[in-house]
Design goal:
Two copies of one chain form a homodimer. Chain A has about 300 residues and is α/β, with parallel strands linked by helices. Helices cover about 35% and strands about 25% of the residues of chain A. At the A-B interface, helix 7, strand 13, helix 9 and helix 10 of A face helix 7, strand 13, helix 9 and helix 10 of B.
């Protein structure tokens, strides 16, 4: 089944304790689609770039077989973000954000995208996310990302969106903001009551929690040898997660757990290089090998007392 | 086999967003021994308290069958610590530390303690920890805890100690401080080169990593419904870990993994109450039940691609 991602394609300038890149390929739709394409044959992007967007980045995405029919090239400049990570590789400090053509982004789906089964709404204004949902004709799973900026700035629009989606992917802090609960587990259950049937709590280097009304699942992150650039970890996680589900064509709790494994492993590889350096070079075999090693280093039996 | 813990028995005053306790039973040896006693029939404490130490706290520990022959009651007041946790339940802010009789703590082992097979050196001056090691006659496993204060303040004494122990339990920040490595995994390997064969990296609500020259193991924490008081989480983890190993009488990689499960589960229960409220009331059956549920919520298979 086809995967649809609506989000950003951007030019990122990123500095870390280990180095820096300038105007490198970035954006949620970029990371998501490259990760999803490892699993799903059909990945459709809806995004906008400016006339200045480098031709070789377009070629990179096209060369991977990602469908860019929904990528608008507008008059003006491409969305640019610049940030710096410190030694902890936690949340980056944003040095500069230039929305440029992204400011007027009003996602319109090409007609042949509307039947996409697995839809991911990248982190944009929740009213735009809702507009995308209304254009989808036969979704199997609609998932969304969001952030503190929208939770605080557009709470009503976000709550309306939550009623229309099946799955929400956010971090632990966002769960607490959205629910007002101190306890992550109580907060997660409160978020489920707002609409989505599935909540995926991304905890970065600390792993992931998956929760539905009936099931709870916790998993550690893959212990990366050396983080180079954490940018795109969440989006590559989401891309592999949705791409894997699309390749199966179904959603049940065991498939969701396996999707979380796929997401964890691809995200762990993505952070091993700047921009999409590592992600763009990955093969399915690389992913399989690390997934198997991951199973090995996480397996245990409980004590018999 | 017998478990020996050398550490503190203290009176803690703790405030959290959910409440507070004053002069409650605390200290590394207290949490450790209560947790270890769930698994091991013989648990020996070496610690010091003052004449003011409440009789009912002694009775609580004795009532659990913990051996207090090595608990000295000295002229003066008991070690007191006072701290406050914020909403994140991360590291507490210390409001007050009164070492009192603990200042002159010079651990002397009663003769019948010297044959203890499983020895845990709580977080005290590394030169005192080394003094304990020299009194042990036939250890099966010697483990130690330490902290930033000793890593910075007594680096040579700590390095001498590391050559004499089998296992070190520290947190991720301490691994980075001790090794000077940014990468946790590289740092962990550097710490192994300093002496211990086994490193257990405690990551609080984010789980645990166990590493030896040949093996890597990562595990998430148990998702606690509501944290009441994180004090003693690390020591109850260590107590259950060592107590479980002592109950088996052997140390191999599978037993170490199971010990980490035991530690994780007992620590998750300890934080559900102030002081030792929850820990002191636990039964083996409570622990077994949660371990089995933990196995259920962490189990997965990898995708077949």
């Amino acid at each position: 089944m086809a995967v649809l991602i609506v989000g950003s394609v951007a030019l990122d300038s990123v500095a870390t304790p280990g180095g820096r890149v300038d105007n490198a390929l970035g954006g949620s739709a970029t990371y998501f689609s490259l990760a999803a394409k490892l699993f799903s044959p059909e990945v459709n992007i809806v995004a906008v770039v400016g006339k200045d967007f480098p031709e070789h980045y377009l070629k990179l995405l096209l060369g991977k077989g990602i469908n860019l029919d929904g990528l608008t090239v507008s008059e003006g400049k491409t969305f640019r973000w610049s940030g710096v990570y410190d030694e902890s590789f936690g949340d980056p400090e944003t040095l500069d954000t230039q929305l440029n053509v992204f400011k007027a982004f009003a996602p319109e789906l090409p007609e042949h995208y509307c039947g996409s089964g697995f839809v991911f709404l990248g982190n944009i204004d929740p009213s735009l996310q809702s507009k995308v949902v209304s254009q989808i004709t036969a979704p199997k799973l609609v998932a969304a990302d969001t952030m503190n900026f929208w939770i605080e700035g557009k709470p009503n629009e976000l709550k309306a969106l939550l009623k229309d989606i099946d799955m929400l992917l956010i971090n632990a802090l966002e769960v607490r903001m959205l629910s007002g609960e101190r306890s992550l587990l109580k907060g997660a259950r409160a978020v489920l009551k707002m609409g989505p049937e599935i909540l995926v709590v991304k905890r970065g280097e600390h792993g992931v929690m998956l929760i539905t009304d009936e099931t709870l699942f916790v998993m550690p992150a893959y212990p990366v040898e050396e983080v180079i650039d954490p940018t795109g970890a969440g989006d590559s996680f989401a891309g592999a997660f949705m791409g894997y589900l699309a390749s199966r064509g179904k959603v049940d709790i065991d498939e969701l757990k396996r999707a979380a494994v796929a997401g964890t492993i691809v995200a762990s590889m993505n952070v091993e290089g700047f921009s999409v350096e590592r992600l763009a070079g990955l093969t399915k075999e690389d992913v399989i090998q690390r997934m198997e090693y991951f199973r090995e280093i996480t397996d245990f039996t409980v004590p018999e007392l």
